[in-house]
Amino acid sequence: MSDDRETISLDEFRARLKAQEVSDRIHAAFKCPVCKTVQSLQSFLCAGCDADAAEKFIGFSCDGRETGAGAPRKEPDGKPCNWTLGGFLRVHTLEVVDPDGAEHPFFEIASPEEAKALEASHQAAKDQG
After folding, report:
1. 68-79 pLDDT, tens digit each
2. Rg (the chain; Cα; Å)
3. Chain segment 38-70, per-residue pLDDT in tens
4. Does an H or E element contain 50, and which?
């Protein structure tokens, strides 16, 4: 799977997140490489995760780990899973290279449309509750 991995600089990573044009950084979104759910810091906060932990998990662990989700299904079904990067299986498709040259695995960066849709769904849930 390493042939399918994209490697980008930290500056490019930041530019792609900025291109999502969300209202706040807590809505910058990533897509789990296993279950394909789109998630943000706000997703983790809504799942009951504290802000410090959410900062460590975003883009590295699926928010389903916070909600008690089970293992990934054979085919993505729109529900989160309990997957995280950094284990034996290297399923990520994105690596970000920091200024020191170290490579860091990340979830795929969501498209601007996906990020905006997730932000809107979080806002709608907030407005209802």
Report:
1. 999 988 888 889
2. 14
3. 999 999 999 999 999 999 999 999 999 999 999
4. none
Type and span of the H or E element at 39? strand 38-40
CB 58 within 8 A of CB 13: no
Task: State which amino acid sits at residue 17.
Answer: L
Q: What is the DSSP letter of 110?
A: P
| Other Cβ atoms closer than 10 A to 51 | 10
Residue for token pair 């990934």: 72
The whole-angstrom separation of Cα 96 and Cα 84 is 16
Q: Residue 38 phi/psi, 5° resolution? A: -95, 135
